[in-house]
Specification:
about 210 residues; Porin; eight-stranded antiparallel β-barrel; 1 helix; about 15% helix; elongated
Length: about 210
């Protein structure tokens, strides 16, 4: 029995070493990137930047919200292509000019259709950082009455327009399970909608979404 002890200890050590060696391999297998198609849904917190007006004056808008749906495909080279359909809403806040300001009522609805290309950085962990950008169109429904601040009048806008938009985005996907990811991200968006002397709109967007792989 005593002679068997070294054999038992050696076998136990070998089993422990094998288990230790297999654990990282198994974990690495679980953390491999998913390839193929996916669908997602994302919520956003819109933070529009103040819009300057030629000749003086600034239109300030309040923070808003957005929601969007995505469909995309990741290729073996870690390039990912994605289409997105989105909706957002932003309230007007105030118009400032000549040292004075006045409140501005109404809001803006944004309906967007965009395409984007991203590059995913494989890390061998549940976290996959990515970066990229996209472009498309945004249809805006404006609801803004004319307002005057210290003799400077900003005309009203109660119409609809479809404009070009482009954005850059960076984020990180966290793999919850083999087919599900949580994706927080940041987007900077530009909209080619300058009118009535106002510059084009730009906005920061903090986003968080869920991505399901097929």
């Amino acid at each position: 029995m005593i002679r068997l002890a070294p054999t038992i200890l050696a076998a136990s050590a070998a089993a422990l070493l094998a288990t230790t060696a297999l654990a990282p391999a198994s974990q690495a297998q679980e953390n491999k990137l998913n390839y193929g198609s996916y669908a997602g849904i994302t919520g956003g917190y819109l933070m529009p930047r103040d819009t300057d007006r030629s000749g003086g004056g600034t239109l300030e808008r309040d923070q808003g919200y957005g929601i969007s749906a995505q469909y995309g495909h990741r290729f073996r080279n870690n390039l990912r292509l994605e289409g997105e359909l989105g909706y957002g809403n932003i309230d007007n806040e105030r118009y400032s000019a000549n040292g004075g300001s006045a409140g501005v009522g109404g809001d803006t609805d944004q309906y967007s259709l965009t395409g984007a290309a991203y590059y995913d950085i494989a890390t061998g962990t549940p976290l996959t950082p990515y970066f990229g950008g996209g472009a498309g169109i945004v249809h805006q429904r404006q609801d803004r009455a004319a307002v005057t601040a210290n003799g400077s009048t900003l005309g009203g806008n109660d119409g609809n327009a479809t404009d070009f938009t482009a954005f850059g985005e960076a984020g990180v996907a966290y793999k919850v399970s083999d087919g599900l990811e949580i994706v927080p991200s940041y987007r900077y968006q530009w909209i080619n909608d300058g009118a009535q002397g106002l510059d084009d709109s730009t906005q920061h967007v903090a986003r968080i979404g869920f991505r399901s792989w097929f």
